Amino acid sequence: MRIAILDDYQDAVSNLACFARLTGHDVRVFHDTPGDPQVVAQRLQGCDAVVLIRERTRFNAALIALLPGSLRLISLTGPLSGQVDLQAAHARGITVCAGRGSGQSTPELTWALVMAGTRHVPLEDRRMRAGRWQTTIGRVLAGRTLGILGYGRIGSKVAAYGRAFGMPVLVWGREGSIERARTDGHEIAADQADLFARSDVLSLHLSFNAGTRGAVRTSDLARMKPDALLVNTARAGIIEPGALLAALRAGRPGFAALDVFDTEPLPADDPLLAMDNVICTPHLGYVSRDGYEVLFGDAFDNLLAYAAGRPTGVLSAPQA
Question: Which one of 25, 76, 154, 198 has the fewest beta carbons within 10 angstroms of its own beta carbon?
Fold first, then answer.
């Protein structure tokens, strides 16, 4: 197969152990993200398959319409998260395969942000380099309420970290999330409003789809404590557009730690970057060598299974 791997701007893929699985195939790796759909389509000329690195390039209907007729497979690193228009892909006869998430990488990054946010680590680092000393007063986590919105594979791990730090855990989400959290011995919030009102640290772990887009509303954020920390390592789109910036300016919540943004890469003039009460990291949740081995390993296995006539991880197109 002739395979293209897009958006490897870290030049990481060829250094992974799992890359050896593609030996014998014609592999082209591109180390930038052009943004222009015409350029993307041109790069895929003559290719049978393409590997996408999360949402770095989104294959919407407009881009899919430009794809060459030779392309028959889109293999995702990790699960589907809105980066491919399945209906448009299937209409062009293109199979889309997905893999697992990165498992441990995102929960650990989430907890790093919780710790950094409660002790103001990035801000104190910047100020110390500028000659200032002990400018903030942090808080301990023990005894404070950790809120979890979405108790799935990642949310449950973050909850376990909170419990290890002596935090009572409060959970809200879909029925399945609630039942799993109750089984694990966590308190269930009365509703989403109750979760936002009572949490000292609130971590968002909803999957991003049409049903969760804008699920966190302005009214939810307004209920948060003025000294609460909101952490989002899920997707920016689960928060109502513009709501978080307005809420931070209004002082509820008092702090945020964010790994995901509506526009990525985040523009250098984005107002979030100028706020001392906000920590921003460049979508690092899945970016670890261990996580990459899982993500790309699955994507490559799906490629090989497709080439062998036994496709795995195939996603169904939505019903029209």
Answer: 25
